[in-house]
Amino acid sequence: MPANRRGRQGGGRGRHERAGAHRREETTGIRWITGRVPPYGGAMNDHPEVPVAPVQAFEPPYYVAVFTAVRTQEQDGYRETDARMEELVKAIPGFLGMDHAQTPGGLGITVGYFRDADALTQWSADTEHRAAQRRGRAEWYESYTLHVAKAERSSGFTRA
């Protein structure tokens, strides 16, 4: 899963278009952070008036895919491919949602949540996703790691 996701329900603005905006799509459990500076580093704008919340705790067991990446300065075509990957993963039965965070130093962390191993395997095997992975290694990523795990316990807290 590439970092720097953009959540849209229509023709809304993407993450690069408005600094510091956050939104949550309740139907899919995806929380998107919009508005970050260059993908290869820099500081992230801090806007405390905009609420931020993690994806809800899901009923275990489920699977998580943790993708951490540092991107190159060459990002031609990334945003379009990223938007397409978002469409594809949201269409997979068993996709629960995702979280994304970006450090000021440029490390992007995306956590995808999947109901079962079959859903994760379907995403992993998708031909367009595999092509995007190849292009990412060739052009967009300086380095990345992928960790996949089965979540046995899940809990959450929200201050009232």
From TrEMBL:
Residues 1-16 have a biased composition (Basic residues). Residues 1-27 are annotated as: Disordered. It comes from the Bacteria. Signal peptide: none annotated. InterPro entries: ABM_dom, Dimeric_a/b-barrel, Jasmonate_Hydroxylase-like. It holds the Pfam family ABM. Residues 17-27 have a biased composition (Basic and acidic residues). Residues 62-135 form the ABM domain. This is ABM domain-containing protein. It comes from Streptomyces asoensis.
